TrEMBL record:
It holds the Pfam family MerR_1. Gene3D superfamilies: 1.10.1660.10. It comes from the Bacteria. PANTHER family: MERR FAMILY REGULATORY PROTEIN, REDOX-CYCLING DRUG-SENSING TRANSCRIPTIONAL ACTIVATOR SOXR. Keywords: DNA-binding. The keyword DNA-binding applies. InterPro entries: DNA-bd_dom_put_sf (IPR009061), MerR-type_HTH_dom (IPR000551), MerR_fam (IPR047057). The keyword Signal does not apply. This is MerR family transcriptional regulator. Residues 1-40, 119-187 form the HTH merR-type domain.
Length: 244
């Protein structure tokens, strides 16, 4: 088929299809005696696989997967796919951690926290939480706490800092690593309040569900492409290399 025929199936331009070929995302096309490209069902399957991979794994990872598959490096391609699944699993774990933290904190908001005694010094906050000041400094290095400094350079923990420290203490008791806690508190600070964070997490969950569904769909398209490559390699009818 011509580039334009393949492009129309996916709402692309013929030049986009040629660009994907030149980038090694799909195998080289057959050429007619006059130099025109002639694409096959294998190329169509490859293009469909790539377009399905993008929303599931992103552009960079999708290109690596396609380069590996088209180049016959199946194990390498599957490692990239595994990396994408692992990232999704980590994101789901972080989301569950944030949702669990919200359920524990209930209706506490920065406005409510403002009624607490502030500002705290590092020693006062450590006593409030029954922690060592060194722990609070370690949390600061991890990006969990971001205290202000007074004119003498001493740390000052305001209402939201106290809330963040209490949340961090809760999550640490639950066994969460510092990196995960920093992510949760970063989302909370960006949202501005627990109610806003709850709405953010709802959107995050929808995004993760969409990505998971996209990965399922992409797996089917990639499998179809692999079978097409394998069949073409056996018959010697298609360009490129079959999976090893």
């Amino acid at each position: 088929m011509r580039p334009v025929d393949l492009a129309r199936r996916h709402g692309l331009s013929a030049q986009a299809v040629r660009n994907y070929e030149d980038a090694g995302i799909i195998p080289p096309a057959h050429r007619s005696r006059t130099g025109y490209r002639d694409y096959t069902a294998t190329h169509a399957a490859g293009l469909a696989a790539y377009l399905a991979l993008v929303p599931a794994f992103g552009y960079s990872a999708s290109r690596r997967i396609m380069h590996a598959v088209t180049g016959g490096q199946l194990d390498e391609a599957l490692e990239y796919v595994d990396d994408g699944h692992a990232l999704l699993a980590r994101d789901r774990n972080t989301l569950r951690t944030a949702e669990a933290a919200l359920s524990h904190l209930g209706a506490v908001t920065p406005d409510a926290a403002a009624s607490t005694r502030t500002p705290y010094s590092i020693g006062e906050l450590a006593r409030h939480l029954a922690l060592n000041p060194a722990t609070l400094r370690a949390w600061e290095r991890a990006g969990i706490l971001i205290p202000q400094r007074d004119a003498r350079g001493h740390r000052q923990y305001l209402a939201q800092d106290v809330r963040d420290a209490e949340l961090a203490h809760l999550l640490r008791r639950g066994g969460q690593p510092l990196g995960t806690i920093a992510t949760v508190l970063g989302e909370l600070r960006n949202a501005g309040s627990l109610d806003a964070l709850a709405r953010t997490l709802e959107g995050w969950r929808r995004d993760l569900t969409s990505r998971g569904m996209a990965q399922l769909y992409a797996a089917g398209q990639l499998s179809t492409y692999l079978h097409s490559l394998d069949g073409s390699a056996r018959t010697g009818s298609a360009p490129g290399h079959g999976p090893h």
